[in-house]
Specification:
The protein is α/β, with parallel strands linked by helices. The protein has helices spanning 19-28, 51-59, 78-83, 99-111, 157-171, 188-193, 203-206, 211-218, and strands spanning 6-9, 33-39, 64-70, 88-92, 115-120, 138-142, 176-180, 198-201. The chain has a single domain (6-218), classed as Alpha-Beta Barrel (TIM Barrel). It is built from eight helices and eight strands; from the N terminus they run E-H-E-H-E-H-E-H-E-E-H-E-H-E-H-H. The structure holds D-xylitol-5-phosphate and zinc ion (ZN). The site of D-xylitol-5-phosphate (DX5) has 21 residues, from strand 2, strand 8 and helix 7.
Length: 223
């Protein structure tokens, strides 16, 4: 029996000029969300696209736009991403100095009428964010160091996912668990049965010559 899982291919491996075409292709081939990786060259070394490219991308797709802000100062840009059509915005726990500013940020994102997500890097313990779970619609567990596609899945992420899933059940939490980095057709089932609801895929979907079949395989459905 397969648990229902959403597949969120990531924009990161795709060149900017091909983003609209890629989004359309993903929509036609069964992707559920488009995971938009935004990098500022400070929180991570790489830089991706900005708000204006994002606004253009929104016009080319009906997919749910899941914005992952790998930027040092996320609160400087959240209003614009919301204005240009983000359905959910995820910020990094590591960007905040204290719990009050983190809670204010999450409440601000929700006040924009969109879903609020929080991401943790592989080195951050899952227990660190337990006290802010009531403010969240989504937790994004990074299963690679943020910044690049194509890295291998960090196996200890499975314990983190399972621990968070258990905590959610114990507290009757409603947030989704999303996993980002190194997801492939071999490990997707284990990640999903450990508690993930949304699987991000960068390189595996981008490099696939049969995106429909690859997305089905990531969902645990063989064609
Ligand atoms: C990495 C990004 C990911 C990346 C995943 O920092 O957040 O979304 O595109 O790529 P894969 O699936 O290739 O690890
Ligand atoms: Zn991402």
């Amino acid at each position: 029996m397969n648990k229902k899982v959403l597949i969120a291919p990531s924009t990161h491996p795709c060149p900017i000029k091909e983003l609209s075409k890629y989004a359309k292709e993903l929509e036609l081939n069964g992707a559920d969300w488009l995971h938009c990786d935004i990098m500022d060259g400070k929180f991570v070394p790489d830089r991706t696209f900005d708000q204006l490219v994002f606004a253009f991308l929104k016009k080319s797709t009906n997919l749910y736009l899941d914005v992952h802000l790998m930027v040092k100062e996320p609160m400087k840009v959240v209003d614009e991403y919301a204005k240009y059509g983000a359905n959910g915005i995820t910020v990094h726990y590591e960007c905040f100095n204290d719990k009050i500013s983190l809670i204010n940020a999450l409440q601000h994102i929700k006040s924009l009428g969109i879903n609020a997500g929080l991401s943790i890097k592989p080195g951050t313990d899952i227990e660190t964010i337990f006290s802010v779970l009531p403010y969240l619609d989504l937790v994004l567990i990074m299963s690679v160091e943020p910044g690049a596609s194509g890295q291998p899945f960090i196996k200890s992420s499975i314990q983190k996912i399972a621990r968070l899933s258990k905590k959610r059940a114990e507290t009757n939490g409603k947030f989704l668990i999303e996993v980002d980095g190194g997801v492939n057709t071999t490990n997707a089932q284990l990640i999903s049965i450990s508690g993930a609801d949304v699987l991000v895929s960068g390189s595996v979907v981008y490099n696939s010559t049969n995106k429909k079949e690859t997305i089905l395989k990531l969902k645990g459905i063989s064609s």
